[in-house]
């Protein structure tokens, strides 16, 4: 039933959105007492983008997106969603922005279609309840009580309620937390379909595979600050620590054949295998250089840096503080 | 922690309000705590008392007032206490705890309208229960119809307002449904005692009866009883109920937390 085309589609490399902006945030600041949750965060989201907000637990992701949906008032900075101020233009904003909150449940003795129809009545141009439930795979469950649903089904109800008002921007906070792998992939497909209908999506997640496969651009946040912003490929490339290529050479060769290449940062011999680390188009340049030296690489294995590598490198605490903590 | 209270509360469409009330009505009979406690129990008590021969006798040889006449206002007070202190606040606290109120504040309909729908549905239940008690009492158990209709209506309105205000106050200050349950119960027993549920007011020690005069249900029973007998309720009883209603609704509005 599902195709996973969206996982392989071409995505442009860019760090700022092209065209019209759906979300524009400048110098956002929010503190709870003396705890700074969001510290000078600026970003923008283009219309029709899937924009990921990633970061460790407690990084300030939820606070940041709650300032977009008007649930929290920023202490400083400006926030515009579709040109509206989420605090000053709340009622206008809520007609065009749908939100799925990280936690929370609904009255257990209401049936799914009753919940969706209740929320539909709040909006001027709601989606058709039956169609929406069908799209979300909840059609057969439309008369089930909310309290009887599985975690994945409840999550899909939350998505239905975020989308029933036909929003232009959907803010989804920890969309697939608690779902099984198949349900997660189905949900990704669903989000991609929603975007294809022109909805801009802001997605909070702490799953790197989700961000990598689904998001056009991601913003990595930690301690309330933006650590990196760009396409998942760009972040992996820039901050993931590069790629690793290992192979068995058809005949011995001088190390400088490869170490002279600007892309190569390290070369090691592990028994019969040669291991090369570096950045950029490592495979291409190494194979080309070997070819010119008359060497064939056999059984080549390439490991490229993932978004997860970038995430771990950027968010890991400084080693000195860890050592201090241990010595105490 | 900042709250999600909107500064301005725009009026939602009639469609939204109708749907909110319809949904809360469904919940009222699917989770029939209020219906059972606030409607079924008092009406059953009316039938049990009404069928007991002792309740048809006059309370003393010098008057025509029967025990039944005396108990109907107490049963009305029981209805108001159970609906106001249990049926009204607990779902509100549950909706805050499950973050449903917060979810609503991310829609064009502010959560205060959900509370409004819940107040409306509970009001309908209270009116139904009190109507059944008075109507049933007059039709089947020989109590006198309200002799002073205006005074009766005023007494019932103020009694309802004071108990609903207390319920909203419980909803405002309770951090969780169990806290609301405990608070409701702690208030329920003394209020019902002073209403005369266990010891009829005229049998109470004068000091206790005077204390009861300053409680909403003590005043309610007194005011409803005299309006049933044809007199306008005593001013102090009306003032006491009005004061409780104002004080606790103001406190509820000030203290209510949306998350």
Strand and helix layout:
The complex is a heterodimer of chains A (328) and B (259).
Chain A (H helix, E strand, L loop, with lengths): L4 H4 L12 E12 L2 E12 L3 E5 L6 H8 L7 E6 L8 H7 E4 L11 H9 L8 H7 L15 H13 L5 E5 L7 H16 L3 E6 L2 H7 L2 E6 L2 E6 L1 H8 L3 E7 L6 H4 L4 E7 L2 E6 L3 H11 L4 E7 L3 H9 L3 H9 L1
Parallel strand pairs in A: 3-7, 3-8, 5-6, 6-7
Antiparallel strand pairs in A: 1-2, 1-4, 8-9, 10-12, 10-13, 11-12
Helix pairs in contact in A: 9-12
Chain B lengths: L13 H17 L2 H19 L15 H21 L1 H9 L2 H5 L7 H29 L8 H25 L3 H19 L10 H8 L2 H13 L6 H21 L4
Helix pairs in contact in B: 1-6, 2-3, 2-6, 3-6, 3-7, 3-8, 3-10, 4-7, 7-10, 7-11, 8-9, 8-10, 9-10, 10-11
Largest sheet of chain A: 6 strands, mixed
Strand ordering within the main sheet of chain A: 5-6-7-3-8-9
What are the low-pLDDT stretches of chain B, counting only 5+ consecutive residues below 50? 1-7
Tally the helices of chain B: what do you get? 11
Percent range for β-strand residues of chain A: 25-35%
- The N- and C-terminal alpha carbons of chain B lie at a distance of 9 Å
**Shape descriptor of chain B:** elongated
In total, how many beta strands of chain B?
A: 0
Q: Helical proportion of chain A?
A: 25-40%
In angstroms, what separates the terminal alpha carbons of chain A? 57 Å
Structural class by helix and strand composition of chain B: mainly alpha
Percentage of residues assigned to helices of chain B = over 70%
Give an overview of the whole structure:
The complex is a heterodimer of chains A (328) and B (259). Chain A is 34% helix and 27% strand. In chain A, the strands form 3 sheets. Chain A has a 6-stranded mixed β-sheet, sandwiched between helices. A 4-stranded antiparallel β-sheet of chain A has the order 11-12-10-13, covered by helices on one side. In chain A, strand 1 and strand 2 form a beta hairpin. The longest helix of chain A is centred in the middle third of the chain and has 16 residues. Chain B has 259 residues and is mostly helical. Chain B has 11 helices and no strands. The chains are: A alpha/beta (328), B mainly alpha (259). At the A-B interface, helix 3 and helix 4 of A face helix 1 and helix 5 of B.
